[in-house]
Amino acid sequence: MTALQYLDLSNNQFSDFLPTFPFHNLPSINTLILSGNKFRGKFSFSIFANLSKLSHLDISYNPYLELETESQTWFPSIKLIELSLAGCNLRKVPRFLSSRNNLKTLDLSDNLLEGNIPSWLMHNATLQLWVRGNNLSGPLPKTFGNKSSRLTSLDISKNSFYGPLLEDIHLIFPELLYLSASYNGFNGGIPPSFGRLKRLQSLDLSGNKLHGEIPFLPHLRLLLLRGNHLEGQIPHRLCQMRHLGTLDLSGNNLSGHIPDCFDNITSWSDFSDGHYLYYLPALDLSSNRLTGSIPVQITQLKALIVLNLSHNKLFGELSPELGKFRDLECLDVSDNKLFGELCPELTNLTFLALFNVSFNNLSGTIPVGNQFDTFDASSYIGNPGLCGMPLSRKCGVVVEKPPKWNDNVVLSNMATANNLLFPCILFIPVISIVYLGDLICTSFRFDSW
User: Membrane-spanning regions, if any (predicted)?
Assistant: First the structure.
């Protein structure tokens, strides 16, 4: 055991008293993962005091441990680079962290921390700081961070912060790549300074009270602004964010037409872009007040996996070109004012897992084959003119032509057939688009970074 450098005991049912574990027999250990267990007892970090090579420590999600947070007696002997204490029922940030100048990654998520973030946490060499899911509160202080901060990833989501966002964030965190401040109580507008974060690739401000317009954020690959009070039209400058992979503007007060320039975003139309490996190609504009027809340019976004335009006031027909979305898994245009028929080209969407065209004014026969044999009636309800499986409403059948000598019967049956078939031939095809809430198509997790 003395030569062991890497030990992973995570996600088991260990329930021993952790302080009795013989860590002193692991002098060469540099990575120790104890997460997802049921270790018990009062726990002092001093038990690692003699592990001078320990650089990566993960004790997260051991809710029965009682971690000591005030001791400083063992500071000089350990040089942690990564430390995860998520889900350990911490009520205070351990004081020994104030002298951890080598610490690059610190995860304190899902604890019971209160008050504001200690300023000393922001004044070391930390590159990644995650404190989501605590009881932290108050406005973000103007002294939050410093101009020499090297922080690249900051997650303060699911807390109780309030007030405006930082006006000079580009000066405070110039190296920031990822920021999540979702599900707090931030209000006011999104400062234009966010657009000056030249390295920022991922921004999640969902579930706040932000209002006003969307600023120009040219470098982003992921932008999540759902569940705010944003208003006005969707700005065309979003189309200049050519590498944007995921855009979620759902649940706001946006109005006007859908921009006809989304085909300028190359990551939605070009499979060779490759960034879908990191950010799911998804467009969600649901639950706004958008009007007009769906732009034909939308049909050029062949790399999209999720398209959700539901709960708006869109009208018109959907192009059969949507049947060329080779990778589309989720399609939802429910609760709009769309009309026409569902075109048979939709059955070419062989990866389609979720499909919803409910509560529109669609008519005609529901296509059959491939994925369309898997959708139930909930995908189609609220369209009085739709017929065929899986609905109980059967489509009309052309009546056989009777003998020529009975002209009255012929005329009568022709009238009946025309009345039944008229809704099936009047309009052109229409389609739909699906939405998955917090998890889009189950593979899309906003909180997985």
Answer: 420-441
